[in-house]
Specification:
two-stranded antiparallel sheet; prenyltransferase; mainly alpha
């Protein structure tokens, strides 16, 4: 059980230097996201500097800035939508700045140790409030007539809060004469999206989901807020329940009595709760007695994103990072989670698959590494959970003179406003 560092490096350098497999063709408009995963994975492995020449680094930085939007200050998801000389007010909605791409572009520049001096910070910060709806949620892009386009879920709130944090820090209120987003409305939106069982959903009254829970907690962390203690305890309970021994589709089929209603996927009977070795009731004992022993190996435990789902590599990050932000990463079974990632989903050619037996892909391969970093895996840089990048990269951001000046200015401005009752 070990991280195969040479194969991991080979996989990520191949992703950086060569054409990706044809399966990624449909993700052409998400190239900024793919670039972020590749650069950040090499950074976690401590090999980003050695993986490129200075000329290549400059080219990568130039490519990112080429995707900076000329009107809104954000970034495109890739150069494919750049209308260049044919752009006009009539077709501007076909070439919008994209909120997630903007977050990933800024993070990628930090990984490449660019000081963000060429980022149109004021324009970008002025663009963010235009993406926020009255209910506190954020969209993805601005369409015709300035209409907010995109989903209502917490992914976009997370990206908006992340862009805001990178460009101006935690302080609320206007900075450098640029209005802030409505932070209280964003926080209320998160609170309303928490479900009865503790997880957080994409929107009020929807099912809790580990990915949305991470995005909600990350957004709150970016704006300097937290869940209330009672809500945080409930969220912690729900997140801990996501660790599971159901690792693939075969595990969801009961082998004891060929009874489809008596399986780990439905959990109608007591013996299907695979984590229990002693049952709290006589009925439970009788139900389990004389049954064949279950075949679940509790040495390997993954994480799922919703109740009654199989484990998935990416949820080791979404759940683990959420617990880390809540200060409860000590609660899940670390050794079993590590064994799941290293023995079940780490691939022989490098990278990680979604589930055991799957080929590696960029998304799951990055989040597999990030999860191991959270667990303290030797040879990987420490992660900052809310930012989804290394502490090293976050430290570089926080050392930039212009940002330190803005953070100090924001704090001073807001202290004055509070003192004057404005």
């Amino acid at each position: 059980m070990a991280l195969n560092t040479p194969k991991q490096l080979q996989y990520w350098k191949r992703c950086l230097k060569t054409f990706l497999p044809h399966h990624y063709t449909g993700n052409d408009c998400n190239r900024m996201t793919l670039a972020f995963f590749i650069l950040s994975a090499l950074d976690l492995l401590g090999e980003l500097d050695s993986s490129m020449s200075q000329g290549e680094r400059d080219d990568y930085i130039a490519w990112i800035y080429r995707c900076q939007h000329p009107r809104d200050g954000g970034f495109r998801g890739g150069p494919a939508t750049d209308l260049d000389g044919s752009a006009s007010p009539a077709n501007a909605h076909w070439d919008p700045a994209n909120l997630p791409a903007t977050f990933f572009a800024l993070a990628s520049l930090l990984l490449l140790r660019d000081d963000l001096s060429r980022v149109r910070r004021r324009d970008c910060l002025a663009w963010l409030p235009k993406l926020q709806r009255p209910d506190g949620s954020f969209g993805e892009t601005l369409g015709e007539g300035g209409r907010i386009e995109g989903g209502l879920d917490t992914r976009f709130g997370y990206c908006a809060a992340g862009v805001r944090w990178i460009l101006r820090g935690h302080a609320e209120g206007p900075v450098d004469a640029v209005a802030d987003v409505d932070v209280p409305a964003l926080a209320r939106r998160v609170a309303l999206s928490q479900t009865y069982d503790g997880g957080i959903s994409e929107a009020p009254f929807h099912e809790a989901h580990a990915g949305f829970t991470y995005c909600a907690l990350g957004a709150l962390s970016f704006v300097g807020r937290r869940l209330d203690v009672a809500d945080a305890d409930l969220a912690t309970r729900w997140l801990i329940a996501r660790q599971t021994a159901t690792l693939d589709e075969d595990d969801a089929i009961d082998s004891t009595a060929a009874d489809e209603t008596d399986s780990p996927s439905t959990c109608h009977d007591a013996h299907s709760f695979v984590k229990l070795r002693a049952f709290p009731s006589e009925k439970g004992r009788l139900n389990y007695e004389n049954r064949p022993a279950d075949r679940f190996d509790l040495r390997c435990l993954g994480f799922n994103g919703r109740c009654n789902k199989i484990a998935d590599t990416c949820y080791a990050w979404w759940v683990g990072a959420s617990l880390s932000m809540l200060g409860r990463l000590d609660l899940p079974a670390h050794d079993a989670a590590r064994r799941y990632l290293l023995e079940k989903t780490q691939h022989a050619v490098g990278g990680f698959g979604k589930v055991p037996g799957d080929p590696p892909d960029i998304y799951h391969s990055y989040l597999g590494l990030a999860s191991l970093s959270l667990l303290g895996e030797p040879g990987l840089k420490p992660m900052r959970p809310e930012a989804c990048i290394s502490e090293d990269a976050c430290g570089f951001l926080e050392s930039l003179p212009w940002r330190r000046k803005i953070v100090g200015l924001a704090a001073a401005e807001n202290s004055y406003i509070a003192a004057s009752g404005g």
